[in-house]
Write a structure and sequence with these properties.
This protein has two domains: 39-267, TIM Barrel, CATH 3.20.20; 272-396, Lyase, Ornithine Decarboxylase, Chain A, domain 1 (Beta Barrel). It has twelve helices and 18 strands. It has helices at residues 6-16, 25-38, 56-64, 74-82, 99-108, 117-127, 165-175, 193-206, 235-253, 265-268, 301-305, 392-396; strands at 20-24, 44-49, 68-71, 90-93, 111-114, 133-138, 160-161, 179-183, 215-217, 258-261, 272-284, 287-292, 311-313, 321-327, 335-343, 350-353, 374-379, 382-387. Strands 1, 11, 12, 13, 14, 15, 16, 17 and 18 form a nine-stranded mixed β-sheet that branches. Strands 2-3-4-5-6-8-9-10 form an eight-stranded parallel barrel, surrounded by five helices. Helix 2 (25-38) packs across helix 9 and helix 6 (117-127) runs parallel beside helix 7 (165-175). The protein is globular. The N and C termini lie far apart (56 Å). Bound molecules: pyridoxal-5'-phosphate (PLP).
Amino acid sequence: MSTLSHSELKQIAGEYGTPVYVYHAEKITEQYAKLKNAFSRSNARIFYACKALTNINILKHINAIGCNVDCSSINEVHLAIRAGIEPANILYTSNGIAFAEIEDAVAQGVAVNIDSLSNLEKFGRKYGSGYPVGIRLRPNIMAGGHLKISTGHEKSKFGISIEQLDAILSLQKQYDLRINCLHIHTGSEIKDVEVFMKVADIFFELAPHFPHLSYLDMGGGFKVPYKESEQGTDIDLLGEKVGEFLEKINAAYGRDFQTWFEPGKFLVSECGYFVTSVNVLKQSGHTEFAGINTGFNHLIRPMFYEAYHRIENISHPEGAPKHYAVTGNICETDTFAWDRELNEVREGDLLVFYNAGAYGFEMGSNYNSRYKPAQVLVINGQSHLIGRRDAFEDLLRNQVEVL
Ligand code: PLP
């Protein structure tokens, strides 16, 4: 198991300052190997959902270990290409975008999943059968760890509702579309393997309607454990079930389908550590606040969708356990944890947030005119600065002073 020790994290905090995001390359490699192993019978391709963490060095590492990339914006596509990833290994799953982005993606030669009838029609008019296309479907399944990260239910903006199948089929016919991929991503932090198998059942039903169909894209969303007592998605069980499904669907239709997966968190959540320092301790009534030198400008997941991050006081692991509200330094309510047991905290101690690789730095901002934190990659036992901490000039970089 690849983990970074307290002493490694303390050394990095000393060298690069805090707050700092630290990523461990070997952990990403390890997670990818688990997926390859689990899906070895599923004729599977894994596309890293790079919106979780797009630092160019992470993209290069993902490429180096043989993993493909799933992009959510055209800029991510360009970043992936800049990182040296072959267009054939890039998938662009669009949502709510202007058609110009799809044209750009086609010009780059990447695979494209379209999520609205409107863009599908425009695609048909422009490319007809000249470029294959995938369809993102909304299956009307409620899944995922929180409503804000559930994307497959009937009120979700994502995908084309399966109730609109007739409209999809008529566009397929009208424009002679080569629909080669069906895509369903029902949400994030899906523990229950059966959710994926419901998606498989939908693919089974729909496949006969799509003569060019080769790829069955089940999205990402595998749950990772956040607490020591928690279990993630059983990907070995999922791999077995998907393998059985593949045999069944191939035999039923005499075809040779490939399955696609787009994990973000599974690949990079656990590789990340967010190391912060305690600015102030404040006793107020029965609550002791540990005020740290960060806020939701650096890690918004707890405030945005009540995500749990394990926190450890790595400066004082022998301290007596006490309960704290861990809060940030932003002029908003930015509580990371309430009533959390930590080893006695002193001002200046280092508090580490675990599972910080996915949607941590990436969802950050300069709110309150604070600097974005530094990012460090540990690979082969060496630490490298892969993202500088902002400096004052960065706050003004895109501002135009007219007065
Ligand atoms: N694919 C799509 C289309 C997504 O929207 C997302 C994230 O929500 C992912 C993949 C990755 O999800 P996760 O990081 O939970 O694996």
